[in-house]
Structure formats: structure tokens, C-alpha cells
Design goal:
By secondary structure, the protein is an all-alpha fold. The protein has 12 helices and 2 strands, in the order αββααααααααααα. It has helices at 2-34, 52-59, 61-94, 97-108, 115-126, 131-138, 152-175, 181-188, 193-221, 225-231, 238-248, 252-285, and strands at residues 38-39, 45-46. The chain has a two-stranded antiparallel ribbon with strand order 1-2. α2 crosses α3. The protein is globular and about 75 Å long. The relative contact order is 0.13. The mean pLDDT is 83.
Length: 286
């Protein structure tokens, strides 16, 4: 009887484990193994093993620039989401129950719309004849339309709009564990608002901020639809380059190598960030 009880959890997770292996693990292994081959003309794959794709990624300035652009984009979007999401989550935590429910619907609204639809909406807003440029021209703030499409500025704006809800939810979850009596105690001892925020509130929500930043960074680094529409051909990132290698150039091994490097890059950043979060969490709440 005891042996049956001990084995029951394994039988319960077996179906989910098989699904993950079939739909996630096996394709990843196949993609990673494909990266060790090379492509010939017409998309024919040479069966001999080689590290040519990885050496080309490391040695070619073109691929290094694309990876650097992807990394910088992910960092900028993460910083913008932190600057917007942390205060927004704090305000949400202080609202009444009714207004909090309404505000959460507004915050989560972008997640209920297809990312392609949202991005096309931003393409209309950011175009040279878009609403943003028309408004700025009407207010005489600019003399000529700004180049927002196919630029870092437009891409960061559109990606931040997509990713802010993830930051808000992560920080808001941390704020639910916060005892607001500590604020009242600090206020009664003469601490100002800025001091309370800096010494009491922010240190306790650091785990949520870092967790949200990690989610935003990973999702931005792997985003395809928004960079493809807003960035276009002039501002290529790793996911759009992978798409081109697979479908336009029929160079599947190079596309697989780029995907493997991107996955390992994001995984490394995630592991290092998790260790930092755990260490910081222990220091704050020990």
C-alpha cells in the first residue's frame, strides 16, 4: 500500500511529462542537433558534422550586431517596463476593491488582444502620417514628421506596451505580501514619503521587480511579431533573422544555430538573475 501511494504522484504527472517531452523537449533536441550540420545550395543539408555555423555567428560582424541589438532592445524594454510597471502596481495595491478590479482589467487589456493586432495599431500610430506625428505637428512641437517606424524608439515603445502587464503583475504579487502597517509606523516616526518608499517599500518588492524584469527580458529577446512589423528589414533582431534563415534562405542549420545560441543566452541570463533574486530575497526577508 505504501509503495502504491509513493508511486501515485509519478503516475499523475506522467501524461503531462510525456506531452512536454513530445512537444517541447524533442523539438528542441532536434533543432539543436540540426545546428551541427551545414546547408548547401537548394537547401540540401550536408550530413557531415561541423561547427561552421557557430564559428560564423561568433566571427561574423553581421550576426554579432544582430545579437547586440537584441540584447540592447531587451534591456531598454525591461528598464522602461520597470519605470512604468512598479509605480502602477503600487497604485493598484492602494486602490479600493472595486477600482482595483477595473484597473486590473485596463492593465491586462493588452494581453486580451492579439499581439499582431496591437502591433498593427502601433504601426498606424507611429507612421510618418500617423496620429502621433500629426498631433506633434499640430502643436508645433516638431517641424517635420519623426521617424518612429523602423527605429529603436518605435520598437521600444511598442514592445513596452506589450510587456508592461507582466511587470505589473509580478510587482503586484509582491505587494500583496507587504504589510502596510510598516508604512504607518515609519510615518509616525517622522519618515517622509520618499524615505518610506526607498527604505521600506522598494526593498521588499525587489524580488517581484527582478522576477518581472526577467520575464520581460526573456519575452522581448524572443519576440518576433512586433520587431518584424515595427522594426522591419532595417532593424532586424535574432528572431526575425532566424525566420529569414529558415524560410527565405532555406539555411535550416544556421537558423537552428541562431535559435540555440539565443536560447542558451536567455537561459544563462535567467539562471544568473534567479540566483541574484534568491540571494536578495534571503537578505531582505531573513
Amino acid at each position: 500500500m505504501n509503495s502504491q501511494r509513493n508511486s501515485l504522484p509519478y503516475w499523475l504527472i506522467a501524461p503531462g511529462t510525456l506531452v512536454v517531452l513530445a512537444l517541447v523537449a524533442v523539438p528542441l533536441v532536434m533543432t539543436f542537433s540540426l545546428s551541427f550540420f551545414s546547408a548547401q545550395q537548394g537547401g540540401v543539408i550536408d550530413p557531415s558534422l561541423t561547427l561552421q555555423n557557430y564559428s560564423q555567428i561568433v566571427g561574423d560582424e553581421y550576426y554579432r550586431e544582430i545579437f547586440l541589438r537584441t540584447f540592447v532592445l531587451a534591456i531598454l524594454v525591461t528598464v522602461v517596463c520597470m519605470l512604468i510597471g512598479v509605480p502602477e502596481a503600487y497604485v493598484l495595491s492602494r486602490l479600493s476593491v472595486g477600482w482595483r478590479a477595473v484597473s486590473l482589467v485596463i492593465v491586462l487589456g493588452p494581453l486580451l488582444v492579439s499581439v499582431v493586432v496591437r502591433t498593427l495599431g502601433w504601426a498606424i500610430l507611429l507612421g510618418r502620417e500617423g496620429l502621433i506625428n500629426r498631433a506633434l505637428l499640430a502643436m508645433s512641437l516638431i517641424d517635420q514628421p519623426l521617424q518612429l517606424m523602423y527605429s529603436y524608439t518605435g520598437l521600444v515603445i511598442a514592445m513596452s506596451h506589450v510587456m508592461v502587464p507582466y511587470m505589473v503583475l509580478s510587482v503586484w504579487a509582491s505587494l500583496q505580501k507587504l504589510d502596510f502597517m510598516t508604512e504607518q509606523a515609519a510615518d509616525s516616526l517622522g519618515a517622509g514619503t520618499f524615505t518610506v518608499m526607498r527604505r521600506i517599500i522598494f526593498p521588499q518588492v525587489i524580488p517581484g521587480v527582478l522576477s518581472g524584469g526577467l520575464i520581460v527580458f526573456a519575452l522581448t529577446a524572443g519576440a518576433f511579431a512586433t520587431p518584424a512589423i515595427i522594426g522591419g528589414r532595417r532593424l532586424k533582431v535574432v528572431p526575425t533573422t532566424i525566420y529569414d534563415e529558415f524560410l527565405n534562405y532555406l539555411n535550416w542549420p544556421m537558423g537552428a544555430a541562431l535559435a540555440a545560441v539565443l536560447m542558451l543566452f536567455v537561459l544563462t541570463v535567467s539562471i544568473l538573475a534567479n540566483r541574484f533574486i534568491e540571494r536578495r530575497y534571503k537578505q531582505v526577508f531573513a
